[in-house]
Specification:
With 710 residues, the protein is α+β, with helices and mostly antiparallel strands. It is built from 23 helices and 21 strands. It is 41% helix and 14% strand. A five-stranded mixed beta sheet has the order 2-1-5-13-14. Strands 7-6-18-17-16 form a five-stranded antiparallel beta sheet, with helices on both faces. Strands 10-9-21 form a three-stranded antiparallel beta sheet, with no helix packed on it. Strand 17 (584-590) and strand 18 (595-601) form a beta hairpin. Helix 9 crosses helix 10 (231-247), helix 10 packs antiparallel against helix 11 and helix 15 (395-404) packs across helix 21. The longest helix is centred in the N-terminal third of the chain and has 45 residues, at 2-46.
Length: 710
């Protein structure tokens, strides 16, 4: 019996071994089949995946940042708005909240969380929904780096393969840093630094616990939890993240209570796209894009340092719109800015338009450029592209030419009705704005009061060709014909060019070329280009000073005297300008450190109606902006009362108010006037040389005859 039992036992053991062998062989076969299937799947889905070297050398697209003169970022040229930040600069509690919320097993898996997948499958089967995902942070990074967000199995397989590949190439810290720089936080903000700057106006290193929780909460669905559109959803999601952080001992109970009681306060504007600087941003873009290429501009991380003073620009933009809105209301224009939707794009703007341009005469740095009231409405830059008649703002060029020809501020000219005849035909009858005539008047007073008749006599005397020549030297690029009506600004100019021309008066006769960008660096800080100050001597310093002194009279006592009434304290000069039928209103004024011009008009060049002069329409825009700049100088410790430097060769002399000559006796009323040395009156002077008829040898045509009406 024992032998039989032994034999049975042996047979059973052989059968068991055989069975085990068969199962083992089957298992090996299944394993090999699965391995081959997985390998085939890996090979199949890897065809469209990047190589390991591409993963290792992956570079984030970072937009090019634009900074103003004070180092404030005012714009970002970017397909994806992104500003990179190192992981050690991000608060630890933000990183910990990210892990506990998005991937609690992050430090234990190798790219794929198997247990998380199994758990998600069971939950989805139970609920019969695909509500549960099991993507790790690494998988999310892989998806954001190389894949689409399409919810299909092939993408999930590719995502898993890439995640494993990333885990083999990078450390956990590097993965976290890449993730925080890559992921979208809604509203076009890519990366935690850009999100922090736009939502909370601070760097990510300064984020509070509450703010960090809000950003982490957005990763669940930045559109669904958008704090700008759905604040209640966003707040609820933030509180959930805070609860997880507290339960996992990332924050203390005190921190939790404080954070969860914080109200939801987020910035609603994109600081990388400042509306007030849109015209300036668009003006410099073509130059940079042409030189460095579109791809490098929008993805290469350039840093563009501009000359714009964003604080002054922002203030000027506000003033321009407020003042023009006041005029629209006062004049009851049919088309008004406030009636047009603010989000309308590329429309024909029929409402009143305006522009402001300001430049530092010492450096050429452009401080303000406003090309219109709303960049969305119209991309046309009215200060850089428009051609408008300058009216009397052109007179300083005429007067400067006259001073170069021997005229002085004391030169007396008769302001009387006159007309110009050619071939027995009346071709021009200059008229003063007030339609009044003042008789004998000095050049200084004529400029102060913007007397057109005097300007007409002056250009007739010195010849319009000389005026055109000076205009070209001042870099006015538009065609300027040598017509007599040039005396009252009948030509067309590009606003910024005429405003920049005034730098010769603020800068002792040197014209400075406008500079919009001070330097450009690459993403690593290497300087690619730097712009140097470009000045050229146009006027003798003495001529420039005399002209500057005369233009100061316009502000102190003339057509721009309201600047003094409204509190402007710095020494300043300038000139108002109004064109026929009130189509254009100008004021260009300057101090020692800023030349600024404002223009008002309609795009279609129709009349703004009666009395819309440079004094009433453009000057009220200029004054508050210049006062704001004056306060900025004071806050910087700059002496705003310092006057323009007087060069050698300028003398002051008491002359007769009536004749501009030396006083005939002690009883004759006098005024102190300035002269370039050797042009001052003496006993043999005849100040009436220009009073009746100009010198005929300077006439541009024998057919031109100047006649008095009386």
């Amino acid at each position: 019996m024992d032998e039989i039992e032994k034999e049975v036992t042996v047979k059973k053991n052989k059968s068991l071994k055989c069975l085990i062998s068969r199962y083992l062989i089957l298992f090996v076969i299944i394993f090999l089949v699965v391995l081959m299937a997985v390998s085939a799947m890996f090979i199949y889905f890897s065809r469209d995946l990047p190589l390991a070297s591409e993963v290792l050398n992956y570079k984030f697209d970072t937009g090019s940042e634009v900074y103003d003169a004070n180092g404030k970022m005012i714009h970002m040229y970017a397909f994806e708005q992104r500003k990179l930040v190192e992981l050690n600069k991000v608060p630890k509690y933000l990183v910990d909240m990210l892990i506990v919320t998005e991937d609690s097993n992050f430090y234990n898996h190798w790219g794929i969380d198997i247990f998380g997948i199994i758990r998600a499958v069971f939950v989805n089967l139970k609920t019969m929904k695909s509500s549960q995902g099991a993507s790790t942070i690494t998988q999310q990074l892989a998806r954001n780096m190389f894949l689409s967000t399409e919810k299909i199995y092939s993408r999930k397989i590719k995502e898993a393969i890439l995640a494993v590949m990333i885990e083999t190439q990078f450390t956990k810290s590097e993965i976290l840093e890449s993730y925080l720089n890559k992921v979208l936080f809604g509203n076009g903000y890519y990366g935690v630094e850009t999100a922090a700057m736009n939502y909370f106006l601070k760097s990510s290193s300064e984020l509070s616990i509450s703010e960090s929780a809000l950003l982490v909460g957005l990763l669940k669905g930045s559109g669904y939890y958008n704090p700008l559109r759905y604040p209640d959803r966003s707040l609820k999601r933030r509180n959930l993240v805070l609860n997880l952080a507290y339960e996992n001992q990332i924050i203390t109970e005190k921190q939790f209570q404080q954070a969860i009681s914080d109200s939801l306060v987020v910035n609603s504007t994109n600081i990388s796209r400042n509306r007030e600087s849109d015209y300036f941003i668009e003006y410099i873009r073509p130059y940079i894009e042409k030189k460095y290429g579109t791809e490098r501009l929008f993805t290469g991380g350039l840093k563009i340092y501009t000359t714009i003073d964003y604080d002054l620009q922002q203030y000027a933009d506000s003033v321009l719109n407020v003042k023009l809105t006041e005029l629209e209301t006062l004049r009851e224009y049919e088309a008004k800015y406030e009636d047009v939707p603010k989000d309308a794009v590329n429309i024909k703007t029929e409402y009143l338009q305006g522009g402001v341009f300001a430049i530092d005469p010492n450096t050429g740095f452009v401080k303000v450029m406003i090309g219109g009231r709303n960049f969305k409405h119209s991309k046309f830059n009215r200060v850089m592209q428009a051609k408008r008649q300058p009216g009397s703002c052109f007179k300083p060029i005429l007067y400067t030419t006259a001073i170069m020809e021997g005229f002085t501020p004391a030169t007396v000219i008769s302001d009387e009705p006159l007309f110009f005849i050619k071939d027995d035909e009346l071709f021009w009858e200059p008229k003063n704005y007030t339609r009044e005539f003042r008789g004998f008047i000095s050049m200084r007073e004529a400029l102060q009061r913007s007397i057109n008749v005097v300007a007409a006599k002056m250009i007739y005397d010195i010849g319009p060709f000389k005026v055109v020549d000076l205009a070209k030297k001042l870099d006015l690029s538009t065609p300027i014909n040598p017509f007599l009506s040039l005396a009252v600004g009948s030509c067309e100019v590009i606003p910024y060019e005429l405003i920049s021309a005034y730098t010769v008066f603020a800068n002792r006769g040197e014209l400075v070329k406008p500079i919009f960008i001070s330097k450009i660096t690459d993403s690593k800080g290497k300087v690619l280009e730097r712009y140097a100050i470009n000045k050229k001597r146009i006027l003798d310093p003495k001529v420039a000073y005399v002209m500057t002194d005369m233009l100061k009279t316009v502000v102190d006592e003339g057509t721009a005297v309201s600047a003094r009434y409204k509190g402007l304290k710095m020494p300043a000069g300038g000139k108002t300008g109004t064109t026929d039928d009130y189509r254009d209103a100008w004021f260009i004024g300057f101090g020692k450190n800023l030349v600024m011009g404002s223009w008002v008009g309609f795009d279609n060049n129709v009349s703004m109606e009666d009395k819309m002069t440079g004094s009433s329409a453009a000057l009220p825009i200029w004054i508050p902006i210049m006062k704001h700049y004056e306060n900025k100088l004071k806050n910087q410790g700059i002496n705003i009362y310092e006057d323009f430097d007087m060069p050698e060769g300028i003398i002051r002399l008491p002359v007769s108010k009536r004749t501009g000559l030396l006083p005939a006796d002690l009883l004759e009323p006098t005024k102190t006037e300035i002269f370039i040395e050797y042009t001052e009156p003496n006993e043999k002077s005849d100040s009436y040389r220009y009073n009746i008829y100009p010198k005929t040898q300077f006439l541009s045509s024998k057919d031109h005859i100047l006649k008095s009406k009386y």
